Amino acid sequence: MTPKKVSTARGSYNSAEIILENPEFRLKKMFHQKELQVLHKMKKASTGQIKKDLEEEIYRKVVVWDEMNPKSPYYFDFHGLTKRGAVRYTKRIMASMRCNNVSEARIETGRGNHSVDKRPRIKPHLMAIFNQEWRKCSIETEEYHDGILMLRIH
Q1: How many other CB atoms are found less than 10 A from the CB of residue 122?
Q2: Domains and CATH numbers, the chain
């Protein structure tokens, strides 16, 4: 089976390939990831309301990043989110999909390469929650990239 051809503002690519971004984009993304790493370290060392505020800031930064740097319509990058933030963002995406009559979205969660034990955390969490508890959608791994989930609204 041939990979699906996807067209974006940055050009066309096969869904099985990694998009090679321009140097300016890579620099912006690296800065974004470093900001998230700092926030996660601060969150880990915090308690109470400060911890909640830092989680909210992480969520906000990821959502704003996706809005300002879309790879393609209904493609979302969840790198840096907490599990709770990922569930919240998925619900937000589903609401947008329903409003805009969109049946399919891609969610980039990654393969877990940056996790302590190299195992993904968000991907299985989203699959468990939305495939078991929600009847009007399904989430499964994209056929050509195991770090991307396909969210389908039924």
Answers
A1: 25
A2: 23-153 (3.30.1370.110)
